[in-house]
Amino acid sequence: MLQLNPLAAMVLAAVSGLWLLSRRRWKSRAQGNPLPPGPPSKLLIGNILHVSPKQPWFKLYEYKKQYGDLVFFYGLGNNVLVLNTMEAVSDLLDKRGNIYSHRPEFTVVGELMALGQSMPLLPYGNEWRAHRKLAHVALSPGAVKQYHELQEDLAALLNKAILNKPEEFFSHYIAQVQLSILAHETMDMIGKATVPGAYLADLIPICKLLKHLPSWFPFHKEARLGRAMIDEFVTKPYEHVKHDLSVGEAKPSLTQRLLSSEKVEGLDNYEHRVKWTAGASAMYGAGGETTYSTVLLYIMLMAMHPEIQSADRLPVIADRSQMPYLPAVTKETMRWHLILPLNDVYFKGTTVLPNVWAIALESDGKYDPESFIPKRFLDSSIQPIDPNLYAFGFGRRICPGQYLAQNSLFVIMANLASAFDIFPPAEGKIEPSFGPNLVSYPEPFKCIIKPRSASKATLVESRAGQCNV
Ligand code: HEM
Questions:
Q1: Residue 338 alpha carbon, nearest atom of ligand 1
Q2: Distances (CA, A) of 467 to 151, 172, 404, 414
Q3: Quick check: CB of 290 below 6 Å from ligand 1?
Q4: Pairing relation of β-strands 70-75 and 78-83?
Q5: Contact 63/82 with Cβ under 8 angstroms?
Q6: CA of 93 to the centre of ligand 1 (A)
Q7: What is the rounded distance in angstroms from the CA atom of residue 300 to the CA atom of residue 434?
Q8: pLDDT in tens, 85-128
Q9: What is the CA radius of gyration of the chain?
Q10: pLDDT by residue (tens digit) across 216-267?
């Protein structure tokens, strides 16, 4: 009898499986079944390879122009449905959120590195619900008020750091939110590993079997390292807050809020869940990546458009309703470059991808969609879609940190706008470019940041002196 070694058997099983799956789709199209259109396909590999794993949003935007509101990709055991309009996204992900709220499985980062226990990767179900309940306690619109003072202090300290060393603006914010080297490296590793298709085992379902290969295979080594980094990243800050609570010195934070408030009713395994909810939030947003990259993007856009900056005192979060121009600048910053351009859900074998990039670039009928023009959000003759409706995701998976993030963005941007003028670099000009990770933040760039006046500089110094952090 023919003896196959395990690897050859897996490869054979993979190829046969793919061939069968691909034939089914191929036949379905040939029989006129109503699959949405997509780029031309080939037997065995379908058309999935038209979705590049590197910054796929650019190509997907082109496909929208070519194939319309819904575009379908398949092959190598994957089905991907791309939704290109707000209507399509809202029909599926908001109105039918009960079925479109699963996540695709990530074998390497989710299972082998154990990140699958964090909220963003948890499947839709009881464990995920428990994490969302906890997140709601700490991050609901009412709960985030308790962080106002802290956020205002952090914005004031950022202003001071920039005043003292304006040329180091790129790293101040990281220092500000106390992202240690470990956190930064872990975030970078997670950011790379969670881009769809980063590992073969995630791109080709049958390759999930690769996880059964002996532990000396190189990708197992990489996974073990990743697992240890993630574990330390989640456990260390948690233990730190627990210690501070025990000696009565804990500062406001998600973990502090959840450990010091009444336990949420009906939740067992409380500490483990708190640790992972706070850890996941740290990883996904509060850790800084999302807010940090939006702030960097804002500085970059201000340097490219110095004509639109002005303000005359250091603002607080309560000022938001009296400052209509700044929210317009914030919205336009979020629209002009989405820092989380991919967020997908999973339903019965199909990954559903709201193409937020294409939605952001949808024409408002008046202003060029690719240009940075904040006044589009103040012009009553048009109704551009508010980026807050798509930048934070959709349906039941919508970002639980959005209220905290909106406050952070407002207070940081308002403080920067009030204290500094931001100009392009003395030599050359800024050519915007962005990293390839899940959070797509600006690549380092140079600009000139100067205090508006000597009195502004004094105000920045004295406000920073009153901080409690
Ligand atoms: C500008 C800042 C932010 C942006 C643009 C943003 C955007 C998003 C988006 C688009 C999603 C949905 C992702 C998906 O469906 O795959 C998401 C999910 C999430 N965000 Fe945020 N976020 C921001 C800040 C924050 C903050 C400050 C926190 C926590 C304090 C946070 C915690 C989370 C968590 C835990 C999830 C996963 C939710 C789930 O899967 O149920 N985010 N965010």
A1: 5
A2: 10, 17, 19, 17
A3: yes
A4: antiparallel
A5: yes
A6: 16
A7: 12
A8: 999 999 988 888 888 788 878 888 888 888 888 888 899 999 99
A9: 24
A10: 887 788 889 989 988 888 888 889 889 989 998 888 888 888 888 777 777 8
CA distance 22 to 115: 31
In angstroms, the CA 74 to CA 79 distance is: 4
The answer to whether 147 and 407 are in contact (CB under 8 A) is: yes
| 447 annotated binding-site participant | no
Ligand 1 atom nearest to CA at 409: 1
Does the C-beta of 101 come closer than 6 Å to ligand 1?
Answer: no
Residue 448 is inside which H or E element, if any?
strand 448-451
* CB 22 near ligand 1, within 6 Å: no
Cα 200 to middle of ligand 1, angstroms:
26
- State whether ipTM is beyond 0.95: yes
Q: How far does the centroid of ligand 1 lie from the alpha carbon of residue 399, in Å?
A: 4
Report the alpha-carbon distance of residue 54 to residue 24 in Å, rounded: 28
Query: pLDDT digits over 428-438, tens only?
Result: 899 999 987 77
Does residue 26 contact residue 41 with C-beta atoms inside 8 Å?
yes
Long-range contacts of 208-214 (CB under 8 A, 24+ apart): 208/105, 208/107, 209/10, 209/13, 209/14, 210/10, 210/107, 211/107, 211/108, 211/111, 211/112, 213/6, 213/7
248 Cβ contact partners less than 8 Å away, ≥ 6 residues apart: none
Confidence of residue 173 (pLDDT cuts 50, 70, 90): low
The single residue listed with the structure tokens 């058309």 is: 47
Task: Judge if the beta carbon of residue 340 lies within 6 A of ligand 1.
Answer: yes
Type of residue numbered 356: V
Residues 6+ apart with CB under 8 A from 250: 241, 244, 256, 260
